[in-house]
Design brief:
Strand content: 25-35%
Strand order of the largest sheet: 14-13-10-11-12-15-24-22
Helix content: 25-40%
Shape: globular
Radius of gyration: 27 Å
Largest sheet: 8 strands, antiparallel
Structural class: alpha+beta
């Protein structure tokens, strides 16, 4: 076994690999760019080597720099994580020449399966059903348009060396095919150092289901069930679960056996994934094979008990698999939510900055683990387990140079319904401040009827949120529960304020009992009756709710019991009330005396400033190009400029017809959120 492993990656996956290496008694080496000098993976590793400037194409994906770090550290093996160099055959070849083990598959398997075009050709030769498409290299945008018309719109434009949603575009017409080709090509070059593009038919109403395979260098191969990855945005997975709520045992077995057969055909050895598109009749079609570890691997680990990183390391060390197909049992249900530094209220655009608060929910052991073919440990004490794979910390910076994923929050429970409920509670208790993030959106998905039923496709987000995410409107029952909780909390805060100010009379607190609670456009007149154990909130219609909690003023998280059910609230104090967040809803809650409420109802509402004649930068990023000139008339939907942020290109378009009167930024300029790019007459 190895004594020292270098992790050729960063962020949460680097931290994830370090955890398993520690467990195995293996020392670890981190690499880092200027932007990652204070990163968590650097702190966790036994040693760290600096490799260059922040852009990945000047540091993390420069093979020579990584090889220098390996020589400096004396590492015997390299785990590439995912992305970056994880599917780069030249990197595997360089390691082989250096006599350093690659914790991944042989170079030939990477070339055969890691390349999307080659893998499809091999699958076709092996009589595996594939999605129709053009597998040859595409030279320019004109050829891309021609091929798209031959295949028939809609089409998917994809980077051959792509992954993680980078270098992917859906085109519904010639204009989108032309724009999508160039953007995909640029993103592929920046993210992978390989700008080859191919095009395939975009299958409507599909489900994205993938099979986890595990193979060694001795001809053994098994599959560890499937993962449902249908909830995606911009072709990037957001929510994953294992097993799939759609598959039956027969289809699972057929997909698994086909996946293993394909892996063996190319001499694959490591932990990889065979991805399929599955239609409503459970017909499945090979999509691609990822020869690397997948982002969503934790859900497979939670339902099988197999540490995939450990297995990868053992395979790379030449050990045969200690697990057979008969050892693989799918137990319970696991769900993963990807926490991204993206603002859901701004069309999920990237957000950067300092994490002024980062408090994940407490992790709960995920039950038994299968080690060398033997189960160790026991199931969690409660009904659920919680796992959070992360690479950040409170006070750390979210950079514009890398993927916006902050963490992967996972829950496990005996049933799918229990796993979903555990995820709801975990999301409510996850505190993130200082940047825009998608926690509210994830909470909304967990409560969405289509997700709860398991009846969703890869078009879920586009169909259910066609105008983008605008927040959650709580039901009347839930609003009342929040109003009751806020009333009880406000009373506690008023007692504290009275004590501090010294306004006491014979030790009797001069605290009012009647309040008007306003939230989400609703107003509830309540009466608070308190005792030493909690408060009883009586509404104007006579309905009563009992509220108990150990919350104290100043706490940013409140865990309460409201009636028969628990309620978790994120709390920020504001004038005359609180900003409360729960189940995806972001609520401004005010508490006033009846007289104050009467006067407040007569106050005029403040009007938002008019920005209709301005193009504001929606995210921190770099202007790649400006598509219009001063004085030019533009039409609704016309491309105005392209902004690159977190390895993704974003085309900003005109919302209405107008004339460009001023251009304030040009190609190469770095902008902050709401900087004015151009103005219109």
């Amino acid at each position: 076994m190895f004594n020292k492993i270098l992790i050729a990656n960063r962020g949460e996956i680097a931290c994830r690999v370090i955890k398993t290496a520690r467990k195995m008694g293996i020392k670890t080496v981190a690499i880092y760019s200027d932007a990652d000098k204070q990163a968590l993976h650097v702190e966790m590793a036994d040693e760290a080597v600096h490799i260059g400037p922040p852009p990945a194409n000047q540091s993390y994906i420069v093979i020579d720099k990584v090889m220098d770090a390996i020589r400096q550290s004396g590492a015997q093996a390299v785990h590439p994580g995912y992305g970056f160099l994880s599917e780069n055959s030249k990197f595997a070849e360089a390691l082989e020449a250096e006599g350093v083990a690659f914790v991944g598959p042989p170079k030939g398997a990477i070339e055969a399966m890691g390349d999307k075009i080659t893998s499809k050709k091999i699958a076709q030769d092996a009589d595996v059903s594939t999605v129709p498409g053009y597998m040859g290299l595409i030279e320019d945008a004109d050829e891309a348009v021609k091929i798209s018309n031959e295949i028939g719109y809609p089409v998917m434009i994809k980077a051959s060396a792509g992954g993680g949603g980078k270098g992917m575009r859906i085109a519904w017409n010639d204009e989108e095919a032309r724009e999508g080709f160039q953007s995909s090509k640029n993103e592929a070059a920046n993210s992978f150092g390989d700008d080859r593009i191919f095009i395939e038919k975009f299958v409507t109403q599909p489900r994205h289901i993938e099979i986890q395979v595990l193979c060694d260098a001795h001809g053994n191969g098994i599959y560890l069930g499937e993962r449902e990855c249908s909830i995606q945005r911009r072709n990037q997975k957001v929510v994953e679960e294992a097993p799939s709520p759609f598959l039956d045992p027969g289809t699972r077995k057929a997909m698994g056996e086909q996946a293993v057969a394909l892996a063996k055909a190319v001499g694959y050895a490591s932990a990889g994934t065979v991805e399929f598109i599955v239609d409503g009749e459970k017909n499945f079609y090979f999509l691609e094979m990822n020869t690397r570890l997948q982002v969503e691997h934790p859900v497979t680990e939670l339902i099988t008990g197999v540490d995939l990183v450990e297995q990868m390391i053992r395979v790379a060390a030449g050990e045969p698999l200690s697990i057979t197909q008969d050892d693989v049992t799918l137990t319970g249900w696991a769900i993963e939510n990807r926490l991204y530094a993206e603002d859901p209220y701004r069309g999920f655009l990237p957000s950067i900055g300092r994490l002024t608060r980062y408090r994940p929910p407490a992790e709960i052991a995920a039950g038994p683990m299968l080690v060398n073919g033997k189960w160790q440990g026991k199931a969690p004490e409660g009904d659920a387990a919680v796992r959070n794979d992360t690479g950040v910390y409170e006070g750390g910076e979210i950079s514009m140079y890398y993927d916006p994923m902050i963490a992967k929050l996972c829950t496990w429970a005996p049933t799918r319904a229990q796993a979903i409920e555990a995820m709801r509670v975990a999301l409510d208790g996850f505190e993130v401040e200082g940047i825009g993030h998608n926690l509210p959106f994830l909470s909304a998905v967990m409560d969405h009827p289509k997700f709860i039923s398991g009846d969703m496709t890869t078009a879920f987000i586009a169909e259910e949120y066609p105008e983008g995410f605008e927040g959650v409107e709580l039901s009347e029952d839930n609003l009342r529960r929040v109003a009751a909780a806020a009333s009880a909390m406000f009373r506690v805060a008023e007692i504290r304020r009275t004590r501090i100010s010294g306004r006491m009379d014979n030790h009797e607190r001069k605290i009012g009992k009647r309040w008007v609670v306003s939230l989400q456009g609703q107003h509830y007149a309540v009466k608070v009756k308190a005792d030493k154990h909690g408060s009883t909130i009586k509404f104007e219609d006579g309905h009563k709710m009992r509220v108990t909690s150990d919350w104290t003023p100043g706490d940013s998280l409140a865990r309460l019991q409201v009636g028969e059910a628990p309620l978790v609230l994120k709390v920020d104090k504001i004038t005359s009330g609180y900003r409360l967040r729960t189940r995806g809803a972001d609520l401004v809650v005010t508490l006033r005396t009846p007289r104050q409420a009467e006067l407040a109802s007569r106050m005029p509402e403040k009007q938002a400033p008019d920005t209709s004649k301005l193009l504001l930068c929606p995210m921190p990023g770099l202007i790649v190009k400006v598509d219009v000139e001063l004085g030019q008339e533009v039409q609704e939907g016309q491309a105005l400029c392209t902004v690159e942020a977190m390895k993704m290109e974003n085309i900003l378009r005109a919302e209405k017809k107008g004339v460009v009167s001023k251009i304030n930024a040009g190609a190469g300029d770095s902008l902050a959120v709401d900087d004015v790019i151009m103005e219109f007459e």
